[in-house]
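Predicting holo structure, magnesium ion bound.
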Amino acid sequence: MNDLNFTGKPIEAREPAASQLSINRVVEWVKRNLFNSWFDSIITLLIILLLGTVLPKALDWLFFSATFSGAGRADCSPDAACWIPIRQYIDYYIYGPFPESEQWRVNSAFAVGLFAFPLLFTQRIPQKIVIGYILFLPVLLWVLLKGGFIFEDISTSALGGLTLTFFLGIIAMCLSLPVSILLALGRQTKLPILRWICVGYIELVRCIPVITFLFMASLVLQLFLPGGVSIDVLFRVLFVLIFVSAVYKAEIIRGAIQAVPKGQIEASYAMGCGYWKTMAYVVMPQALRNSVPALISNFIGLFKETTLVMILGLLEVMGAVKATFNNAEWLGLHAEGPIVVSAFFFVACFSIAQYGAYLERRIRRTKH
Amino acid sequence: MSKQTVVQLDRVNKWYGKYHALRDIDLAVAKGETIVICGPSGSGKSTLIRCLNNLEQHDEGGIKICDITISENVKDIEKIRRHTGMVFQHFNLFPHMTVLDNCTFGLRHVLGMPVSQANEVARDLLNKVKIGDQEQKYPGQLSGGQQQRVAIARALTMSPDIMLFDEPTSALDPEMISEVLEIMRSLSKDGMTMICVTHEMGFAKEFADRIVFMEAGSVIEISPPEEFFVKPKTERAKVFLDQILAH
Ligand SMILES: Nc1ncnc2c1ncn2[C@@H]1O[C@H](COP(=O)(O)OP(=O)(O)OP(=O)(O)O)[C@@H](O)[C@H]1O
Ligand SMILES: [Mg+2]
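Done. C-alpha cells:
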C-alpha cells in the first residue's frame, strides 16, 4: 500500500535541504556516472571532444551566423543557414494554397483539433463526451477544410502544407483506432466467416507496403470504378491511411486482449453480463490500457506516414517546403527545409508521446 | 421436503477431453442451506461449482437453478447467472474501476439501473462488508482480505438467491482469512443459500448444514458436519480429514 497519512493523501517525499546539494555531491555524481572506470573515462572524454567540436559549429551555422532577414539570396552567407525563405513562405507552409479569404476555416480547424488535447488530459469531463468529441472531430475537420454542410467546397488542390498534414493526421488517428478495435474483436470472434475475413485482411494488408496501397488507391481504384465516377483523392488517401494502420493497431490490441486474465471475463459473465458488454466494459478498457505504449508509437508512425502522400502530388508540409526550395532564387539550399519540417514533426510527435506518458502515469496511479 | 429446492443436480457428468471430471453427480440444495464442498485437490470441486452458473458446461444430466434448467439458451443462462453470485479464489475485481464502480457494474450494465440508485445500493453493501470508507480506491490499492470483501459485496449487489464460493480464502494471508469468514458467517446466518468450496473446516463445522465430500469426480459422501467430522462414512474421507486437521 501507499504511504498514507491520516487525510488519505500520499505523503510527499521531502526535498533535501539546499545545503546538502553541495559541490561535493555533484563531483560525486560525475565520478560515479562518468568516470567510473578507465573505459568510462575514455568514452566520456571522446564525447566531450566530439560535442566540443561539433556543437559550436552547429549552433553557429543554425543561429549565430545565420541570416534571418533580408531581401533575397544575396543577403545570405554561403556558410550558414539562410532562413529568409522560411520566413517568406511561412504562410504557404501553414495554409498551403488555401483561399486566403477562407483561412479562418483553417484556423478554426486547428483550434478544434488542438482542443482535443486538453480534453484528453482532463479527468473532469465524462469519458463519453471526450470519446464523442474525438469521433466527431473527423467530420468537423472535413466540413471545415473540405466543405459541405453550410460551408463552401474547397478543391482538393487547395489543401496543402501544415493544413493538409493536420487534416490527414488527425482524421486518420481518430478513425483508425475504432476500426482496429473492430478488427481485433473480429479476429477473436467465434463466428468463423467473420473471423476468416478479419484474419485474411490483417495478414494481407500488413505484408504489403503502405506506399503500394497509396499508388493503388490513386490509380488502380479508378480502373474498377464505372467511368465518370471518381472518389476524391483525399478520401482515398485517408481510407488507405486508416485501414492500413488499423491493421497494426488491431494486432497490438489483440495481444493485449489475450493478456486480460480469464477471471475478469468470468467475473463479468457470473453477474449475468453478456459477451458484448463484457468486451466493452471489462476487456477492452484493460486491453487498451495495456497497449498504450505500443499504440502511441503507432500513432506517431501514422502521423509521420502522412508525408507519403507527397508521391500522389499532394503537397503536405514536407512537399510544400520542398516545393518552395525549388524556386530558382533558393535553389541549392538543401538543409533548411528538412530542418524546419523535422522541427515541426518533432513538436507534434513529442506531444503525442507526452500524452502517452501521461496516460501511463494515470494508469499506474490505480495500482498499489 | 418442506423447503423449496433451489439447486437440483441430476446425474451430472462432465469430461475434459477424455478425462472424466464429474461422475453422476446428484445433489439438491434447499433454500437457506449452507453447503460446504470439500475433497482433495483435483477432485472436481471447482468444476462442479462452476457448472452451476455455466462457467463450465456439463455434458450429461440436468442442472436446475431456481426452476430454470441450464440449456444452450443464452437468455436462460444469463437469468441463472443473475440468480447466483460467485466469489472467486483470486477475487477477480476489475482493476480499472474503483471499488464503488466494481460494485455498481452489474446494476448499471446488467439491470440498467441509474448510477445514483446503483451507488446507493452498492454503498449499503460496502458498509455491510465494512469497507464503505474505501469506495474511491482501486482494487490494487487494497489488501487481499479487503478485495475479497469487495468481491462479496459486488456479488451481493445483484441480490442473488444463491451464493457460490470457490475457495474464497485460499489466496489470503492467515490474518485476513477471518475477516472474510466473518462476512460469510453473517450471510449464512441471514439465511442466504450458500455453496462453498473451502478448506476452512472450522467454518464447515460451525455453519454448514451439510458437507459434500468429493473424490475423483464423484460425490462420495453427503453428511451433516456433526457426522462427517466425527464418524466419516468412508476411509477416504477419514484420511482427508486427518490430513487437513493435522495442520
Ligand atoms: N479446463 C480444463 N481442461 C482440462 N482439464 C481440466 C480443466 N479444468 C480442470 N481440469 C481437470 O479436472 C480435474 C478437476 O479440476 P478442479 O479444478 O475441479 O479440481 P478442484 O477439486 O477444484 O481442485 P483444487 O482443490 O486444486 O482447486 C483436475 O484433474 C483438473 O486437472
Ligand atoms: Mg478448485
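Residues B 45-46, 167 surround magnesium ion (ligand 2) (CB under 6 Å).
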